[in-house]
């Protein structure tokens, strides 16, 4: 059984790896001072970037470079006036006239890195640095070698959380109560209960270790993604301190402490046979349950329950406009899934080993007694998952089309389908298996076919939940459509176009008339590129089936093209395809997306 479970876990990890994609950054640059391509008559004292949500200024934050790629900022990045959406750095005094490049690399509220830059001039415009913005930032975007294992680590973290919460609840609520109802005075009952207690303790220790390792790895992987470095590079003390000082890092560091506290409780507080039978005191006949004291229960339950809060505070819930609604919903969602999955795991991993020493008739009675207590708990979990899942879908997704057209929506749709399958399997157990077992228990029968059906459905349920956890781990890497709904722009884009650097702005990035500016620069040297023979731009709104629409671009300067009052309807994610023909046979192509607010 353990071997089968290990195979299922590996399969879930493989699915998490397949689903782990390019994380959509949430924060968007909406304004800067100086503005892009601005020419200031006198030197500004600071450079300031404003985003559409709060950002964290670590990992290189804001830097300014001269034409020789030398730093000319004072290195002091801060939030002026405590404004979380604004980052500012000061400039060194008495800078000469010329062109300067300002870059930013910030961490969005949900832990996703955002980077970019712009050029401005003092006195008069000139050549900018020969280095690209990516080279100036000094980092590379984290690739699959980092993001894939990060997604796996998140999925394993969810698995450990679900097992820690669910197994403890199963032992305290279902197993002990069911055992107390049917246990006899024979030694076989003591043997069965002690076998389960010892196995449960081993599994819980393994779960704690799994949680600690996945949490530690998650912090390092987040550092690699945010700082644009490798896993080994993220082990640098400065990067780790920067990660832990972010909201994501703080939550995960606290979670590591919670895992350690739970492990200590299992070592120090929980006696070896806390969930087993022991002889009654004073020589009384029969057996009674060895119950953990109140302090021991608190020491076990509090850290286990605290784990359910981490996904809400480190994930998407706190980045939305309804955090007071979404945070409790996320916590309840995690608790419900954990209680359900932990109960299934307990029935599959603990009960068979414990009941092996019992006679078939006693095995039937015990199994029926435990299932009678787990069944209503599972039903309550289904209701909680349905309510919270519906609420989250309403908030995170803007329309039914998002289920198919958005990566986040597709992951949610997969998760809904899997949970519906779980509900069907649970209904089979509740409507067919449980009544048969209760009838057999009352008549002194053996599990027989009902027991075999129960084992098959339990294995399917556990395997399906593992896939759900893998999908959940992938969901964290996607930005919900709601995170970009209502964006009022302007949109600033920086993309490579063959050997060129393309800078684009769309204003106001709202439904209706918009203005687009395209700037073409040589990636090396930074000079405007004026070798274009023809440039074409098309816009497509895939979700609504609109486009491709030709955007008429007019040349307004060297390497500068403008489209005035072109229409973008409806709102949502638009894809822009750019083709720059430089000769009869050569052209450069790229595409970018922009969110158009409703």
From TrEMBL:
Signal peptide location: 1-20
GO molecular function, one term: copper ion binding
Gene Ontology BP terms: copper ion transport; response to copper ion
One of the record's GO cellular component terms: plasma membrane
Domain annotation Copper resistance protein D: ranges: 369-475
Major localisation: membrane
InterPro entries named among the record's database cross-references: CopC/D, CopC_dom, Cu-R_CopD_dom, Cu-Rt/internalin_Ig-like, Ig_E-set
Superkingdom, taxonomy of origin: Bacteria
Domain CopC: 26-122
Keywords: Cell membrane, Copper, Membrane, Metal-binding, Signal, Transmembrane, Transmembrane helix
Membrane topology field: Multi-pass membrane protein
Transmembrane segments: 158-175, 203-232, 252-270, 297-314, 334-354, 366-387, 407-428, 462-480
Xref: Pfam families: CopC (PF04234), CopD (PF05425)
Location of the protein in the cell: Cell membrane
PANTHER family, per the entry: INNER MEMBRANE PROTEIN YEBZ (PTHR34820)
Protein name from the UniProt record: Copper transport protein YcnJ
Lineage of the species this protein comes from: Bacteria, Bacillati, Actinomycetota, Thermoleophilia, Solirubrobacterales
């Amino acid at each position: 059984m353990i071997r089968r479970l290990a195979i299922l876990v590996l399969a879930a990890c493989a699915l998490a790896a397949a689903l782990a994609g390019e994380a959509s950054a949430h924060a968007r640059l909406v304004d800067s001072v100086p503005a892009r391509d601005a020419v200031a008559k006198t030197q500004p004292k600071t450079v300031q970037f404003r985003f559409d949500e709060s950002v964290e200024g670590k990992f290189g934050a804001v830097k300014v470079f001269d034409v020789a790629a030398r730093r000319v900022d004072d290195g002091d990045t801060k939030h002026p006036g405590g404004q979380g959406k604004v980052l500012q750095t000061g400039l060194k005094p008495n800078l000469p006239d010329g062109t300067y490049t300002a870059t930013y690399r910030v961490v969005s509220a949900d832990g996703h890195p955002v980077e970019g830059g712009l050029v401005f001039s003092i006195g008069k415009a000139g050549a900018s640095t020969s280095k690209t913005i990516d080279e100036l930032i000094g980092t590379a975007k984290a690739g699959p070698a980092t993001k894939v294992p990060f997604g796996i680590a998140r999925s394993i973290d969810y698995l450990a959380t679900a097992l820690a919460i669910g197994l403890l609840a199963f032992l305290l609520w279902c197993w002990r109560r069911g055992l107390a109802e049917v246990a006899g005075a024979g030694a076989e009952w003591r043997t069965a209960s002690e076998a389960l207690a010892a196995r449960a303790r081993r599994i819980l220790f393994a779960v704690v270790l799994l949680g600690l390792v996945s949490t530690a790895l998650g912090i390092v992987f987040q550092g690699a993604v945010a700082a644009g470095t490798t896993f080994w590079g993220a082990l640098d003390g400065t990067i780790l301190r920067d990660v832990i000082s972010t909201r994501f890092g703080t939550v995960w560091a606290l979670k590591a402490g919670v895992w350690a506290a739970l492990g200590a409780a299992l070592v120090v507080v929980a006696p070896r046979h806390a969930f087993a039978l022991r002889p009654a005191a004073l020589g009384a006949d029969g057996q009674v349950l060895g119950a953990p004291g109140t302090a021991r229960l608190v020491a076990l339950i509090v850290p286990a329950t605290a784990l359910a809060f981490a996904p809400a505070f480190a994930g998407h819930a706190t980045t939305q406009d309804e955090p007071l609604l979404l945070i409790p919903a996320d916590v309840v969602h995690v608790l419900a899934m954990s209680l359900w999955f932990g109960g299934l795991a307990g029935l599959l991993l603990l009960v068979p080993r414990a009941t092996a020493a019992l006679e078939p008739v006693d095995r039937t009675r015990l199994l029926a007694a435990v299932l009678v207590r787990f069944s209503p708990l599972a039903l309550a979990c289904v209701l909680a998952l349905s309510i919270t899942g519906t609420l989250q879908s309403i908030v995170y997704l803007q329309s039914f089309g998002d289920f198919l057209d958005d990566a986040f929506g597709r992951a949610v749709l997969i998760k809904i389908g899997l949970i519906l399958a779980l509900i069907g399997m649970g209904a089979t157990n509740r409507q067919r298996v449980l009544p048969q077992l209760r009838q057999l228990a009352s008549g002194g029968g053996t599990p027989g076919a009902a027991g075999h059906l129960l084992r098959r459905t339990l294995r399917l349920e556990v395997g399906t939940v593992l896939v759900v956890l893998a999908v959940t781990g992938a969901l964290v890497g996607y930005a919900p459509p709601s995170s970009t709904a209502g964006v009022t722009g302007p949109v600033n884009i920086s993309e490579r176009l063959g050997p060129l650097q393309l800078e684009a702005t769309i204003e106001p990035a709202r439904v209706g008339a918009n203005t687009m500016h395209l700037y073409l620069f040589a990636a090396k040297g930074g000079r405007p590129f004026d070798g274009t023979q023809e440039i074409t731009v098309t816009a497509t709104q895939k979700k609504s089936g609109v486009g491709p629409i030709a955007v008429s671009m007019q040349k307004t300067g060297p390497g500068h093209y403008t489209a005035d009052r072109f229409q973008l309807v409806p709102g949502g994610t638009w894809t822009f395809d750019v083709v720059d023909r430089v000769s009869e046979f050569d052209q450069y192509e790229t595409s970018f997306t922009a969110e158009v607010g409703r």
